[in-house]
Amino acid sequence: MDIYGIPNCSTVKKARTWLEQHGIAYQFHDFKKTGVSVAQLDAWAQQTGWEKLLNRQGMTWRQLSDDAKAGITGADTAFALMTEKTSVIKRPVLVHQGQVLVGFNEAEYTAALT
What we know:
Radius of gyration: 14 Å
Order of helices and strands: EHEHHHHHHEEH
CATH topology: Glutaredoxin
Helix content: 40-55%
Largest sheet: 4 strands, mixed
Strand order of the largest sheet: 2-1-3-4
Shape: globular
Number of strands: 4
Distance between the termini: 13 Å
Strand content: 5-15%
CATH architecture: 3-Layer(aba) Sandwich
CATH class: Alpha Beta
Oligomer: single chain
């Protein structure tokens, strides 16, 4: 099982704590250190849709110019932004047995992992 995110993100911390409390082993991938590829984003988006991967609530999105925001018109432009500014990816992204979960929802984690 792999979990992707940023270590100091509060939602990532909640997800990692939940996994540890349930004795579930995982491999953590830090977007800031390892980045993310377009191929990886595309694979996740096949299940979730690119819109779910794009965090429009976060500080990084809010700091973008209106023109930059308006330029996100589809998967290609969204993925280009996500690879350039990994903080704009909704976190965490959990990949388990081919299933992709975006964000942390305790009920979803329970259903998928226990």
